[in-house]
Structure prediction request, 170 residues.
Amino acid sequence: MDSPYRKLLAAKIHRATVTGADVNYEGSMTVPPELLAAAGISVYESLHVWNVTRGSRLETYAIEGLPGSHDICANGAAAHLIRPGDHVILAAYAMVPEADAKSHKPKLIFVNEKNEISHTGPEIPGPQIPTGPRGGDSASSTDASKSGETPDADGFQIAAAKQHAFADEC
Prediction:
């Protein structure tokens, strides 16, 4: 590494639903091969796991689950911090030459409750997303009604529409 490098997000699988947790397994995070491929995450690659439900964070590695299974499983010690039903963000990082940092684009994969790909990046910055009941701020439905938009029960239909429109512009 002669020139400076930056540690940047390489890939993210956003808000996956954990389907299993096995403390007796040796370790790692089981992820379906379809999600690994979509995100460009390699088997045995270092994986950061951010538990949105519990607020815990850990680092482990990815192992490939069964094709078409949609299973996201915490194995080994991680199973003490992650339980079935929790929502997690799975992230991988890469060392990127500083000269390439401004043009770097991570692979961002967004999944639904069944761990099926709903759409791909880019992300919407937090202040631009209506928060609704999940974010603890009910102002989004009020803001949506003022703008003439109709949110779904969680207030995320608007965010998804904005995200898709932003992605189309890029």
Residues 156-169 form the longest helix (14 residues). Residues 134-158, 163-170 have pLDDT under 50 and may be disordered. Strands lie at 5-17, 20-22, 28-31, 46-51, 57-64, 73-75, 87-97, 107-111, 117-120. The longest strand covers residues 5-17.
